[in-house]
Amino acid sequence: MTYLAALLLIAAALCALMAGAWVVQQRTGNSGWVDTIWTFSVGTVGAVAALWPLADDAPHARQWLVAVLALTWALRLGMHIAQRSKVAGDDPRYAAYAQQWGADAPRRMFIFLQQQALGSIPLVFAIFVAAQFPSAELRWQDIAGFAILAIGIAGEAIADRQLRSFRSDPANRGQVCDRGLWRWSRHPNYFFEWFGWLAYPMIALSLSYPWGWATLLAPLFMYWILVHVTGVPPLEQQMLSSRGERYRAYQARTSVFFPWPPRSDA
Predict the structure, then answer these.
(1) pLDDT tens profile 141-181
(2) Could you please report the per-residue DSSP string of 137-189?
(3) Could you tell me which of 142, 160, 262, 137 has the C-alpha nearest to residue 202?
(4) CA nearest 212: which of 143, 138, 126?
(5) Structure confidence by residue, pLDDT tens digits, 46-63
(6) Residue 266's pLDDT band (cuts 50, 70, 90)
(7) CB 177 within 8 A of CB 246
(8) Considering only CA atoms, which of 37, 40, 17 is closest in space to residue 28?
(9) Which pLDDT score is estimated for 1?
């Protein structure tokens, strides 16, 4: 199987799985499951692609390492989103889209999820390319890639736990979480999610491996999505609507994405 053939198979698999996500969303009325299915889809297709043999040889150590990284990421994030969706119900972002689309919502949602599937191709292809680096021996870059993704997963899990703990306290109702990692970034969970995708360029980039440069699309795409499209903008708008001046004060002193000491606590 060539790299281009792998790209086509990855695209077909993601489109099929996100079509399944649309069916679940339509039948349950809970669009929160969309992100759960997306996460498990990216991780599973990525792990299968990582282990897929380009020759007749059995998967080598790097392929197994990358497959485990992809599945670990998917399990942690997917279970977190699933738990949140089970409790919180419909995702307000998707609900807003449905309200805006009106009677055409089912068709528009299907198209939107297919676009999401196609947009995820750089992520899965980065996993595939990193796993297929033309050397069976593990190198220091592989260990560094493992460390980067481990930090990303751990940081995102800590941020999620801190936010969940803050929200579970009735005394914090209507307040803005600015504790722990949330004191340094308004979206530390998004930052660590992005940071983890730097693992695959770390593993794959080499002057002797031209395909390795394709892995840079993964963190670039994830940054664009999180900071400019479906991550920060709708969430900031939602928080301004619900928290008002409290959130504006938080914005004034706290970095939007990259962790940084707050400008002022006043």
Answers:
(1) 999 999 999 999 999 999 999 999 999 999 999 999 999 99
(2) S--HHHHHHHHHHHHHHHHHHHHHHHHHHHHHSGGGTT----SGGGGT-S-HH
(3) 142
(4) 126
(5) 999 999 887 667 788 999
(6) very low
(7) no
(8) 37
(9) 60
How far apart (Å, rounded) are the C-alpha atoms in residues 153 and 73?
A: 7
Q: What six digits make up the tokens of 19?
A: 């079509």
CA-CA distance, 256 to 41, in Å (whole number)? 29
What does the alpha-carbon distance between residue 136 and residue 123 come to, in Å, rounded to a whole number?
Answer: 23
The identity of residue 153, as a single letter, is I
Residue 51 structure tokens: 């282990």
Two structure tokens written together for 111: 């198209």
pTM (predicted TM-score): 0.92
Instruction: Share the mean pLDDT of the chain.
Output: 93
